[in-house]
Amino acid sequence: MGIRIKHAGLHTTVQDRGRHGYRQQGIIAGGAMDDFALRAANLLVGNDAGAAVLEASLIGPKLIFEQDALIAICGGNLSPAVQGTAVPLWRPVYIKAGNELSFGNSVAGARAYIAAAGGIDVPLVMGSRSTYTRAAIGGFGGRALKAGDVLAIGEGALETLYYWEQEAEDRQDAAPFFATSWSIGSEGRPFYRKNPVIRFVPGRHFDAFTEGSRKHFLQSDFRISTQSDRMGYRLEGPRLSTVAALEPISEAVSMGTIQVPAGGSPIILMADHQTIGGYPKIAQVATVDLPLLAQAKPGETIRFKQITRQKSEELYIKHELQMQRLSMFIEIRYREER
Predict the structure, then answer these.
(1) I want to staple 22 with a disulfide (CB 3.0 to 4.6 A). Which of 27, 81, 101, 103 is the partner?
(2) What are phi and psi of 103, to 5 degrees?
(3) Least confident residue range of 27-36, 127-136, 165-174
């Protein structure tokens, strides 16, 4: 019983908020590329915000639900449907056993997050269920999912699930799924958009780049290369260079660090980035804009906007307060429906 993978899609993995506390041993944090979408999907089904979900990239999977389940799909729109009927995003959806949840190509965004009440039940590895494929740890056997895999669903919030089970019985119809009339509106989530403007704080070596390079970085469009993945986005655009040759000592990096190798093409480190890096660091993406990056596709362009560290911190605090309000909103809606 659980979720059976009929077709795995392009790259579908189990992810949570990451594996923290092991960087000194060289173990990356990893976790969801779009932390906001993961947290929102979990909150919608009554999970802890960091419970394990499925992260589907660009071309989504086909999933057979072998048991009734309360789910929510957040993030990019990868054309979800149950038995051919479109499924709404950003709201709780009750899917009945035996039905297929399928995804098509991306309409908007690059990654969808599928949460199920109770969470995806895979073993904890160093405190996390996230998949890190390069080291073959976490998730389902340390790898991307493939056809034939069966994922267990943990025990959800019993009170919430009881409400939905009663609702399903009361309806007494043949519909394969039903959803709430309410959802997380656009005003309550990141401003996902094609070709986003990404805010950044100057990096450790920003002033070491030539004036022309800094100007290009601030004023030019950069295209996300097809050679991009969960480890990093390679950018195509103007070549950037430092005033003099730099060979920095390797030091800690984080998701959103923008490094510039000798060739001059920037690389934005993403969720599966290494723990240290030795290339010059021109910038650090503001944390609140990481979800926008996570939903940008190869071939799309991005532009950078400089902000102060103080502004970045203010935006982060505002973001976390928004998450608290979102959690309260969902809790209130459940109370009203009961």
Answers:
(1) 27
(2) -130, 150
(3) 165-174
Tokens coding 180: 């709430």
Task: Give me the amino acid identity at 91.
Answer: R
Strand partners, 81: 86, 102
Dihedral, CA of residue 179, residue 184, residue 190 and residue 194, to nearest 10: 40
C-alpha 42/C-alpha 125 separation (Å) is 20
Q: Which helix (H) or strand (E) holds 101?
A: strand 100-102
Q: pLDDT for 135-186, tens place per residue? A: 999 999 999 999 999 999 998 665 566 666 666 666 666 788 888 889 998 8
The single-letter DSSP state of residue 231 is S
Work out the end-to-end distance of the chain between its first and last CA atoms, rounded to an integer number of angstroms.
Answer: 28
Q: How far apart are CA 121 and CA 129, in angstroms?
A: 8
Question: pLDDT tens digits, residue range 244-269?
Answer: 888 788 889 999 999 999 999 999 99
Alpha-carbon torsion 213, 215, 217, 221, what sign?
Answer: negative
CA angle 277, 281, 283 (to 5 degrees): 130
Rounded CA separation 101/2 (Å): 13
Bridge partners (DSSP) listed for residue 305? 199
Dist CA 276 CA 278 (whole Å):
7
Compute the distance between CA of residue 177 and CA of residue 173 in angstroms, rounded to an integer: 10
Q: Can you give the pLDDT at residue 164?
A: 66
Q: Residue type for 336, please?
A: E
DSSP alpha helices (H): ranges in 35-157? 35-44
Q: Which residues pair with 306 in a beta bridge?
A: 200
Tokens linked to 241: 């260079």
Coil vs helix vs strand at 275: coil
DSSP state, residue 144: -
For residue 66, give both structure tokens. 């072998």
Reported as a single tens digit per residue, the pLDDT across 91-104 is 999 999 999 999 98
Which helix (H) or strand (E) is 62 found in, with range? strand 62-65
C-alpha angle 100-105-106 in degrees, rounded to nearest 5: 115
